[in-house]
Amino acid sequence: MRFPDVIIELLSDTTRAVDTGEKKALYEGLFRTAKYYLYDPWSQEFIGYHLHGMHYREVELDAARRIYSPAIGLYLGIREGWPPVAHRRGSRGANTVGACRARKTPSRAGGTEGGAGRAARGHVSASLR
Q1: Residue of 13, 65, 11 whose CA lies nearest to 36
Q2: What are 64-111's pLDDT values in tens digits?
Q3: pTM of the model
Q4: Hey, is 43 helix, strand or coil?
Q5: How far is it, in rounded angstroms, from Cα 48 to Cα 96?
Q6: Residue 48: domain span
Q7: Largest CB tally within 10 Å, which of 59, 89, 109, 127?
């Protein structure tokens, strides 16, 4: 059986413990997955692990907040102002931080945030080297 060379997990409050504990141990020990990446869209936490020998080592982000993944030949990182703001009837707005900052989004506490709050958060993106 062949296991994946790269795994990217999107974290949430309900999956964080399993993704960073049980799944990480499974991918490291049994699957021997060379590259394991975790991203939490709420906290902007982005962590990469590369397998060295029998264990994962955390990879530091570069100055542009990216990690190069040789397994897929791409940089993975946090990109501000993505995705574009959605408008009525599914049309897409400008892909800029300014447009996102003007939008109000639900906060984790149930209210709304505008200005430079969560609406301006980035999302993981991949780009060619």
Answers
A1: 11
A2: 889 999 888 999 988 776 655 444 444 443 322 222 222 333 333 443
A3: 0.64
A4: coil
A5: 26
A6: 6-73
A7: 59
